[in-house]
Design brief:
Helix content is 77%, strand content 0%. It has one domain. The protein is mostly helical.
Length: 184
Amino acid sequence: MESFRLLAQDLQLLGAPQALIERARSAAADEVVHTNLMNHLAAAHGGVSRAVPFRPVPQRSLFELALENAEEGCTKETFAALVALHQASHATDHEVASCMKRIAQDELRHGQLAWDLHQWFLSQLPSLEAEQLEQAMLRSLQNLSTVPFRNPMNEQDSRRLGLPSKAMLPRLASRLAQVLASAA
């Protein structure tokens, strides 16, 4: 939630279109809802939620923000949406499936925001930096399928949560990377 709030502030300072700024603010509100949903699920199943420490980020340049967006937003946020969709479709726990459906819809919007921001950043950067950004994007997409995926849960809990299998995650990542790289 903090990252989207900071993104909205940075976009405001950089003179981004108001629609993109508002979508970043909306994404921050979505993340509050996601946190509440996950805290509810954790409590319902005997879990305990932990606060994630927030580290302030210094103001970033247009290129730094564009690079972060390409690597975190376009790549990882889009992959997170895909995993959430999988969970919504495969969770055997109906409450988990319902929560993941809501989260997946929001994550798809967040991924689309990242791709729309990517296009805006490209239009704002000098051609050399735009080319560097495109190369970084392709590297990020290629790296997505090489991330070591860990799932410390037993098979029964993984099914209840609808998590993709350890073997399926790299295949999903690889296929998504191929599709996104061809579209980029």
